[in-house]
Structure prediction request, 232 residues.
Amino acid sequence: MSGAGLFGSAVSEELNKKGFKVKIDFLNLSGKQLKDVESKFKRKVFEMDVRDVDRLTDEYAVIIERYGLKDLRKEDQPKTIKKIASKLKRNGLLVLVDMTCDKENKKIINDSHALKQKLGGQKEKLDDKCNIPAIQEWRKLLKNAGLRIVFETRFNVGVSMRAWFESGQIDEIGLTKMRKFFKSKPAKEKKSISMREHEEDIKMTLPIIVLAGERVLAGNSETITTTSTESR
Ligand SMILES: C[S@@+](CC[C@H](N)C(=O)[O-])C[C@H]1O[C@@H](n2cnc3c(N)ncnc32)[C@H](O)[C@@H]1O
Prediction:
């Protein structure tokens, strides 16, 4: 679930500069995403579905997951996180950065994300709806996979319809449909994501969770560090 390799390559280069011997592999369902990773960054890639990650033979000290697991079907999330955890060395870390939601904005965040995925043509292998876990659900998913949460933080990101359009995530028709979707929502739901209209644009603020889970023996899974930051 690597993306096109910029983030992972930057992380490994920085760590190598600091004297760590880092070997980093990339996994993505889409060969198109991995093409650059292989040619430009000369890294090992696995073109495969993360739901089959248990088929890999290597084990890792750190696995980074950013903005991928939330798009799995609800029933696939626990199984997949368990499989990912099984690929960690003892005391290895899963670092997860992904969308989350609270009770009051769960519906609008999931519905708008599902619509955006559909308009962007990204739903062919996935579910029709989105199942972005709430914070306590993310924690439970990690704990049930035998991971002890050693770090947790949450921050907010500002997003804009226009930016989605300008970065090619949705086209002109998609932009009109997304605008219509948000404008039709009740005031309470709009407020729950701080939705605001600015000229022709619609902006909102969405919560992101960062969790680090350490692979430990079952039965020892209390959270040690919890911090919270806000940014836009
Ligand atoms: C929102 S992008 C995030 C990319 C990258 N991790 C980042 O943070 O920039 C989600 C990525 O997950 C990949 N993906 C979606 N479903 C997947 C699956 N079942 N198995 C593996 N990769 C998947 C997509 O191809 C896409 O590149």
Q: What stands out?
A: Residues 1-3, 7, 28-30, 33, 49-51, 66-68, 71 surround S-adenosylmethionine (CB under 6 Å). The chain has one domain: 49-215.
